[in-house]
Amino acid sequence: MNASDSQPSKPLVWDWPSWIKGSLANPLDVFAAPQNLTQPILPGWTVGGVVNVTEQNSSAPDTEREILAKQSYGRQLGCIMDALMILVAQQEKEGRKAPAFDKLKQLDRQIDGIKTQAAANRLDRLTADLATLKENDSKEYDRVAAKLRAVLG
């Protein structure tokens, strides 16, 4: 028997740190968050009226963005609708009728209804704000109420 035989044999132990080290570029990656955390939220939806103006859909996107910053599409279309309604009324006064006129007048009535409802909603919020102001700051409420009375006559 030689000296190496007399020593007890080492138990077989799985060397997992070496195994992980050999199988992963960075062993701590198993605990790390993914590098890319982007995911679409409501794909296909447009929130907040986002309009993308690019060189692909406009010959002068910078100019269009400047115009849009000062005059919204809604305001621009509103002016066009107002002018068209005057022209339609003149045409109908002269006896000219067209199905497109009826569609345009219906659209105008629907838009007016939306504007009326939006105004009513804003006034409801104003009323609620005034009630809160009256409850929390009577001096400021009196000042604002006096301004409103002056405007309302």
Structural class: mainly alpha
Shape: elongated
* Rg over alpha carbons: 36 Å
* First-last Cα distance: 119 Å
> What about the largest sheet?
none
Structure report:
By secondary structure, this protein is mainly alpha-helical. Among the domains are: 58-97; 98-153. It contains six helices and no strands. Helix 4 crosses helix 5 and helix 5 runs antiparallel to helix 6. The longest helix is centred in the C-terminal third of the chain and has 38 residues, at 99-136. The chain is elongated. The relative contact order is 0.03. The model has no long low-confidence stretch (mean pLDDT 83).
Quick rundown:
With 153 residues, the protein is mainly alpha-helical. The protein is 63% helix and 0% strand.
Topology:
Layout: H1 3-6, H2 16-23, H3 61-70, H4 73-93, H5 99-136, H6 138-152
Helix pairs in contact: 4-5, 5-6
Summary tags:
153 residues, mainly alpha, 63% helix, elongated
